[in-house]
Amino acid sequence: MGAPTxxxxxxxxxxxxxxxxxxxxxxxxxxxxxxxxxxxxxLATGDPNVVADRYxxxxxxxxxxxxxxxxNRAQIVDYFVHFLEKKPHxxxxxxxxxxxxxxxxxxxxxxxFTLAATGQQVEAxxxxxxxxxxxxxxxxxxxxxxxxxG
Length: 150
Known about the structure:
The protein has a five-stranded mixed sheet with strand order 1-5-4-3-2. A hairpin with a 2-residue loop joins strand 2 and strand 3. The N and C termini lie far apart (93 Å). The protein has helices at 7-15, 29-44, 48-52, 73-84, and strands spanning 55-62, 88-101, 104-115, 120-133, 136-146. 28% of the residues lie in helices and 39% in strands.
């Protein structure tokens, strides 16, 4: 005797949604530009941990007002402890966004920080490298350097 067949098995197969592989879509330039807005909002909290949350655990930060390369969360938090004392607010003057693929992008350009604690303005060149990790955009590399004199 052969194996029994069940009519309901075929019917339930037809009712199951078909899973198809779809290629992930690249982010838009607006999506990447908004990451700076979110980072700037993190600065406004005054909490260095909130700012550090924007960075991947293995991120590298080459900050504007420090000679120390920051290569882990504790070092990044330490930088922002001191930077946030100046009450910074950033504004992008020029931005060039390059979408590399669905999981990575680069934003590079010029920004200016107003330091409310002193009234000083610092203009700097920047590069942010972003990666989508576990559904969240994280900064994996952030380089910022003051504009040269002249």
